[in-house]
């Protein structure tokens, strides 16, 4: 890609609301394709927010599902979607996510795939992994809410 700056003003899309887009990050082709650090970090800030929301969605869905063995994954993911991603989606995206929630695997198939031999130890491994994910999501959310994370 050239070092030519492209406009990041794309209207009402998510991209149009970014403080800095990757298209705004200069690449110095005469200096071994050096990428401007400050501009790159500013563009990456928006991805960390998006990434954090996706992780939060996943963590909440899996926690909801792990907490109640009667729920199918689709129920847990729909519930998590409603409180994490849905408030940020427009009327065009919401039906797509609704359809996607119907496409998640059945609970028994999902858990068998990630842990074919369910034992108390493997259940403990999964619980520890989920707790660690939730802890990291919380830390990321707290960091993104701090003043110094706002460039």
Describe the protein in words:
The chain is built from five helices and two strands. It is mainly alpha-helical and 151 residues long. A two-stranded antiparallel sheet has the order 1-2. Helix 1 packs across helix 2 and helix 2 (73-83) packs antiparallel against helix 3 (94-102). The longest helix has 31 residues, at 37-67. It is elongated and about 55 Å long. Residues 1-11 have low confidence and may be disordered.
Features:
151 residues, mainly alpha, two-stranded antiparallel ribbon, 5 helices, disordered N terminus
Write the layout of secondary structure elements.
Layout: E1 27-28, E2 34-35, H1 37-67, H2 73-83, H3 94-102, H4 107-114, H5 120-145
Antiparallel strand pairs: 1-2
Which bin fits the share of residues in helices? 55-70%
> Span from first to last CA?
26 Å
Query: How many DSSP-defined strands?
Result: 2
Give unreliable regions as ranges: 1-11
Q: For the CA atoms, what is the radius of gyration?
A: 20 Å
Tell the overall outline.
Answer: elongated
Q: Which strand order does the major sheet show?
A: 1-2
Give the structural class. mainly alpha
What's the SSE pattern?
EEHHHHH
Short précis:
By secondary structure, the chain is mostly helical. Helices cover 56% and strands 3% of the residues. The chain is built from 5 helices and 2 strands; from the N terminus they run E-E-H-H-H-H-H.
């Amino acid at each position: 890609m050239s070092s030519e700056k492209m406009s990041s003003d794309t209207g009402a899309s998510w991209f149009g609301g970014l403080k800095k887009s990757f298209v705004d990050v200069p690449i110095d082709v005469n200096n071994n394709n050096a990428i401007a650090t400050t501009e790159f970090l500013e563009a990456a800030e928006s991805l960390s927010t998006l990434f954090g929301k996706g992780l939060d969605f996943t963590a909440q869905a899996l926690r909801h599902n792990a907490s109640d063995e009667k729920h199918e994954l689709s129920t847990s993911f729909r519930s998590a979607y409603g409180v994490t991603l849905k408030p940020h989606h427009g009327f065009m995206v919401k039906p797509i996510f609704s359809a996607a929630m119907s496409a998640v695997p059945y609970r028994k198939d999902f858990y068998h795939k990630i842990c074919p031999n369910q034992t108390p130890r493997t259940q403990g491994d999964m619980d520890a992994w989920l707790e660690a994910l939730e802890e990291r999501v919380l830390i990321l959310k707290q960091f993104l809410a701090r003043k110094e994370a706002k460039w």
